[in-house]
Structure formats: structure tokens, C-alpha cells
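Running log. JK asked me to keep both predictions on one page so they can be read side by side. First protein, sequence followed by its C-alpha cells:
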Amino acid sequence: MPPAHTLARRTRVAVGELAGEPFVTTRPGYWQRALTDRLFTDAVIVCEGDEPYAIRGLVSAGVGIGLMPAMARRLAPDPPVGWLHLDAPCRRTLSLVWRTDAYRPAAARALTDFAAGYFRTWTGDG
């Protein structure tokens, strides 16, 4: 939510409470757009783009509201936005794949070890 939005002071919101809100999202083909289209069949999309961080800037500026993963809250604290948990059955699956018959450099092995350990216990609560 834009920081000045009336709902921005809350911590949770239901899908139905966002009916008629202007949305800022990615173009078709990105997960944010697919989720927006699935949850908000009558969404009024006022702006779309290709860069999630730019979309956050547009939300912060008050252009509309948008969907972002909880992880984005920790990783990039600016520009400021109001964060609400969306009460909807949403789940993302992240997959990490590599060829077992190819050389994996030490950095790639370290990344897979880190990611497997980190996401094994991650709750997604931000």
C-alpha cells in the first residue's frame, strides 16, 4: 500500500477489501501479474512494468497498490510502503536445479547449500 493509504495502518487485509483499488503490477508473464489476475479478477491495473523494484516505487508514490513477497520487506526497506498480509491462499514454490553431470564451481555449491538450509525452515513471515 502507499504509506498514506487508509488501509496502510493495518496488518492484514482480505481480498474483497481491495475491490476497486488501482493496481500497479508487472506485465503478463510474471508471477505477480498471474497472482493479481487470479485473486482480483476485476482489478483496475493503472500501471504495469518489468521491474519489481520500480513497481514498489510507484506504490510508494501513491499510483496504486501491488503484490510483493514478504521477503522484499527485509531485502529492500526503501522506498517506504505500507505492508499488509493478504488473507488469501497464496503459496510460491521456489526451485533450485542444476545438472548432476556437469561441473559445479565452489560458489555454486555454496549457494545451493545455503539456499537449501535457509528455505528449509523459512516461514515466509518476512
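And the second, directly underneath as requested:
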Amino acid sequence: MLPIAKDAAKKVLVVEDDDSMRQAIERLLNVASFATAVYRSAEELLAAGPVEGDACVVSDLTLPGMSGLELLAELHARGWWRPLILITAHDSPGVRKEAEQSGVAAYLAKPFLGNALVAAVKTAMEPTGAQ
């Protein structure tokens, strides 16, 4: 029997509307021993309800309907204070500043390296990295 990786109980909720990007992120995080749940929109994640235990969210900034930053605000309004890592293909100093002021755990511009995302998730999931 294989040992269970220490991060296996930690869940990453991936919100990405691009099918290929969502699948790539899911595979990457699964290989890094994280459990994942994937959603095509912020509204889909919100409809699913909060997740018990250790969790963080990886969300695209630009989504159909609610944006990644609007999702973060709505999660906080609902009392769900898990870290959110924002990814975007629309990087700019203004967007980056708004994301940081909103309290994102990390901000990654596409294309990003897979190990950068895994490192951001691991940092966000540590007790001192959790919001």
C-alpha cells in the first residue's frame, strides 16, 4: 500500500472557464498530491457550497458572469475565509494592485510555470498562509 501524501487531505477548488486550462491545472495539482474539485464559473462554485477542512481556491480573473475578484468578495461576504490564488491572462499593474488589495493569497499571470502554482498552493494552505 502506498503512503498517503501529507497534502492529500487538502482540497483545491479550481474555477476556470477554459476547459483545457482547467484540466491541466487539475492534473498538475493531483500529481502534486492535492485533491481537487473543478468548476466552470464562480456561480457554479458558490452553488456547490462551502467545503469542509483545509481548502483553497484557484480562480481565473476573467470568468463568464462573476469575476475571480468578485468571487473572493462573495466568499468573504458568506464568511468563507479560505485563501484564493488568482490567475489571469490579463496582467497589468492595476489589476495586480487591485488583487493584492483584495487579499488574494497569490497572483499568477498566464502563462505561469506549474511549479509556481504548486508552490503558491502549498504556501496558501499552510496555517500561516491561510486567511
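Observation for JK regarding the second prediction: The beta strands are 11-15, 35-39, 55-60, 84-88, 106-109.
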